[in-house]
């Protein structure tokens, strides 16, 4: 098999084997987590909720959650390949991955996440796909990214603590994605104007207060601010462009956006092999 170019019929198994072998060699002996230099907690603990409640509670925490994932999966459907390999960074419970398969039914999935509890939820949600999905327990900041057509992420990249490391990840994504492929990121992206940032924060609080007391709503935002790193939307666009992508923002509501980077131009040397 030509590594990094063509994939035979059993490519999912081989992708998983390579990823596990190389990722395990890079993981430190400490308990894995999403953010490499912060206390290692699972996604549910980070949000302050129980794992079994995750899919029910997440829309109460993120104002436009379902609309945002719908916009991200719609963007994935714009990929040139009709049988794309989709790599989901921080796959979580598999909510975005499931929507991507609904948008592109012939897609194959590779989900990378360090949170074993979330991987268990994703495995249950995506079990109907059989060998078309590979779930890899690894840190996407250090795990090798397989050759693919799309890289997706939803509410996982804000765990990257510095601009330098996020820019480096975008560069790795660009190298992994075939020509005509996409990077689709759904996340919190701040306004550049301080007054608009304040408006967006008030909108987030109003949403939280529909399900929680004002004190608890403020507590959620304070707790997340200690662990999450949100960049301005213009900075996210600049980092993607610097990596080589043509960038669009097909969806934005208050503090949240879906950003799409397209790898265009030139002939991919692996495309027809």
Ordered list of secondary-structure elements with their pairings:
Blueprint: H1 11-26, H2 43-47, H3 54-61, H4 65-76, E1 85-89, H5 95-103, E2 108-113, H6 116-125, E3 133-137, E4 148-154, H7 163-176, E5 177-188, H8 194-208, H9 214-227, H10 233-243, E6 246-253, E7 256-262
Parallel strand pairs: 1-2, 1-4, 2-3, 4-5
Antiparallel strand pairs: 5-7, 6-7
Helix pairs in contact: 4-5, 7-10
Give the termini separation: 11 Å
CATH superfamily: Vaccinia Virus protein VP39
CATH class: Alpha Beta
Tally the beta strands.
7
As a whole number of angstroms, the C-alpha radius of gyration is: 18 Å
Structural category: alpha/beta
Largest beta sheet: strand ordering: 3-2-1-4-5-7-6
Tally of separate helices: 10
């Amino acid at each position: 098999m030509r590594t990094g170019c063509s994939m035979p019929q059993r490519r999912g198994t081989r992708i998983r084997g390579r990823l596990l072998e190389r990722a395990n060699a890079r993981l430190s002996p400490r308990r894995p987590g999403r953010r490499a230099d912060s206390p290692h907690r699972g996604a549910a603990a980070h949000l302050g909720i129980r794992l079994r409640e995750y899919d029910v509670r997440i829309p109460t925490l993120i104002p436009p959650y379902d609309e945002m994932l719908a916009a991200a999966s719609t963007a994935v459907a714009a990929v040139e390949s009709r049988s794309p390999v989709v790599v989901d960074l921080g796959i979580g419970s598999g909510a975005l991955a499931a929507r991507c398969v609904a948008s592109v039914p012939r897609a194959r999935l590779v989900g990378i996440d360090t949170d074993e509890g979330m991987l268990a939820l994703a495995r249950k949600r995506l079990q109907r796909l059989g060998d078309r999905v590979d779930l890899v327990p690894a840190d996407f900041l250090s795990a090798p990214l397989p050759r693919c057509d799309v890289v997706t992420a939803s509410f996982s990249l804000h765990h990257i603590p510095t601009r330098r490391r996020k820019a480096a990840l975008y560069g790795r994504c660009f190298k992994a994605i075939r020509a005509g492929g996409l990077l689709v990121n759904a996340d919190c992206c701040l306004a550049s104007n301080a007054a608009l940032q304040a408006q967006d924060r008030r909108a987030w609080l109003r949403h939280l207060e529909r399900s929680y007391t004002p004190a608890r709503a403020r507590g959620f935002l304070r707790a997340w601010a200690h662990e999450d790193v949100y960049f301005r939307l213009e900075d996210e666009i600049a980092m993607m462009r610097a990596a080589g992508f043509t960038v669009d923002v097909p969806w934005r509501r208050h503090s949240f956006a879906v950003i799409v980077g397209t790898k265009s131009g030139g002939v991919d040397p692996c495309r027809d092999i």
